[in-house]
Amino acid sequence: MTRVHASDGSLIAEYARERRLYLPSAAIPPLVKQAFISAEDKNFYSHAGVDPEGILRAVFVLAQGDKHVQGASTITQQVAKNFLLTNERSYERKIREALLSFRIEGAYSKEKILELYLNEIYLGLGNYGVAAAALNYYGKSVHELTIAQVAYLAALPKAPNNYHPFLKRERAIERRNWVIDRMIENGYVSRQDGEKAKAEPLGVNPRVLSPNAFAAGFFAEEVRRELSDRYGEKKLYEGGLSVRSTLDPKMQLMARRALVDGLVRYDEAHGFRGPMRHIDISQDWGIPLADVPALGDVAPWRLAVVLDTSDTSARIGLQPRHEKSGEIERERLSGTLLNTGLRWTRGTGTRSGLAPGDVVYVEPVDGKPQQYRLRQIPEVGGAIVVMDPYTGRVFAMVGGFSFDQSEFNRATQAMRQPGSSFKPFVYATALDNGYTPSSIILDAPIEIDQGPGLGVWRPENFEGTSGGPHTLRYGVEHSINQMTVRLARDVGMPLIAEYAKRFGIYDDLSPYLANSLGAGETTLMRLTTAYSMLANGGKRIKETLIDRIQDRWGHTIYRHDERICQGCDAPAWQNQDEPKLIDKREQVLDPLTAYQITSVMEGVIQRGTGQSIKEVGKHLAGKTGTTNEAKDLWFIGYSPDLTVGVFMGYDQPRSLGDSAQAAHYTAPIFRDFMKMALAGKPDIPFRAPPGIKLIWVNAKTGMRTSASTSGAIQEAFKPGTAPPDSYAAGDATPRAQTVDHDTDRLVGTGTGGLY
Q1: Is the pLDDT of residue 28 over 50?
Q2: Is 40 one of the catalytic residues?
């Protein structure tokens, strides 16, 4: 089996054609070996491959009509058949089987033959070998199995389906007890222990491994796709790979909760669409309700049927769960939908449109037993990605409301317009080419002649008004379209397209001015990775869901971290220099520019379109994104050590509403996640690189001022630049104010660390 683990070692997913875990003979406990030898081949250690006594015994037992047949085939013969022959029933095959058994006995030790057998045999429910069977039947290692449990496993090789733990429980117990009797007879267990084991119930509790345990369906599927692309289907399902993923289970659950709350918040604001379906509740309502397919990854939501309604509440019956045997549990649980749980439907009580027999989703109310609120599966889609900005390791990724509902991953597969969330890269290009955060840009109507047949383009601001000259910082904080287009025209779209390619947002952005407003299409994953490069000081990173991959022998065949550790392979300590990590990653942006745009995007949260995030109470930077007609809503942002991207939009793009803005829907999702992820962690300012000067300026005009002045903020300037001393208006865009080096030395520079 290929097994995928989270970063903390938790098992997320397994992929295999045959569920099998290989164990060497030394790792298989004697009790397990003794049980199988008792059931299949009591003379295993003494015969030479074929057991004449066993053949005579089988014939005698058959003549007596005993249904507990101990097979005439030895364990060695079964190894020969399973590995080298077919299941054809013929004398010719039996002769070949016997001859091969003699050859195998001559080539391998008894322990090696037993090892091959115990790892090869089919033991039912898709399990091959004792290790996989122990894990999947009992959730145990082979070392933890009891006498009764090893005896049941040893009872299975003859015909697993005849001793199914649920469908044929009585026959299974009878066969298990027969094996225990053989173990007593052969002296492997005492009579007392054997009788005690025979009195135990079967106790099979099949392990259900599902990424849903960590709400990681989208994450696990993305890992599976990458493994398949990298190594092919055969190696994925038969290669026994061990994959250590980057998933942080706690952050994954936080991310899903924040996203689901945000999608539900939007969906419920647009009203109740009615029940999922209607069923007959005149008889036992549990049976038809159990047949309604339910999503497996939306817990604690559950399906329920309305039993009766009143003016103030509705009584509901909860969907019965399925037993391991496939049968429906007999207990019927009910609860109450109160007015408070129905309020969002724009009606109360029976006016919510619910009638007896309606099937709906409900969610338990915290702290109020048997009380529920009405829920519905959101129509709107969305995604969230959480990443380490320094390594590209993806801590969490949720590609939609429910993986069971739709496997389409909106974080990696949905190509959407980023809108205003692309603007920071337009402004970063300007800052990297002579502008400062205090440079003045005109916010006024602008007309762009698009060439023959295309007419004139007149970009408008979201509010529909223009505000005159403003600082570059103001243009980002308040997401001013007309300022952005003027800036892009001055800097040049070919240069902006080059920067967009450097950051990996687009492969080849067309140099049209409309693309400065995010009209091109990209994915949430690519845009979140690009923001990570702003957060880490401009270093190129590659997003990854996988830390390392090992083959079936434990050799590392892939590692994400490509840094070279110089001196790590020294054979001994000989007073040499300590090992060094050599980082050869490309610098895609000047670290000073990266800090400037980060500082500007802090203002988005403090004074601009992301003010709802202020309540997190930590240093955060980010940018909202709302496209034309609000078809796509984004918020991408970061703390010094965590980058988070959020997207919301319908799968078939359509408007989310005339008044829909990222500030109202995606920014709160970012806020809710950061509240959970950063709870209890210190508030760390963004790291200022050496050379940055922090100068007090007027937030509105960008001109130098004192710290005590109302509206003063600290602005970041590169060496050789300073705030303007005069306020320039008009269409001309002033460049950075240059200062002589003596003046430069009078201004305090960044510490190079934390300030």
Answers
A1: yes
A2: yes
Taking Cα atoms as reference points, which of 698, 84, 46, 669 lies closest to residue 382?
A: 669
Judge whether 383 and 330 are in contact, CB under 8 Å.
Answer: no
Catalytic member of 38, 313, 352, 420: 420
Region 706-716: mean pLDDT is: 90
Q: Tell me the per-residue pLDDT of 230-267, one tens digit each, with 9 for 90 and over.
A: 999 999 999 999 999 999 999 999 999 999 999 999 99
Q: Is 88 a catalytic residue?
A: no
CA distance 151 to 202: 10
Question: Could you tell me the two tokens for 504?
Answer: 């990996």
* Residue range 55-89, pLDDT digits in tens: 666 555 555 555 554 456 899 988 888 888 776 76
Residue from 455, 434, 500 nearest 736 by CA: 434
Tokens standing for 326?
A: 């496939």
Question: How far is it, in rounded angstroms, from Cα 107 to Cα 49?
Answer: 11
* pTM for the predicted model, two decimal places: 0.88
- Cα separation of 233 and 235, whole Å? 6
Nearest in space to 322 (alpha carbons), one of 348, 352, 289: 289
- The Cα 27–Cα 425 span in angstroms is 57
CA gap 211, 397 in Å, rounded: 12
Q: Which residues pair with 449 in a beta bridge?
A: 456
Angle between helices 75-84 and 110-120 (to 10 degrees): 60
CB atoms within 10 A of CB 740: 8
Q: Which amino acid is at 476?
A: V
Sequential DSSP letters for 499-532: HHHHTTS-SS----GGGGGT-S-B-HHHHHHHHH
CA distance 322 to 675: 37
Q: How far is CA 63 from CA 39, 60, 67, in A?
A: 20, 5, 10
For residues 622-643, average pLDDT: 95
ω into 364 cis (within 30 of 0)? no
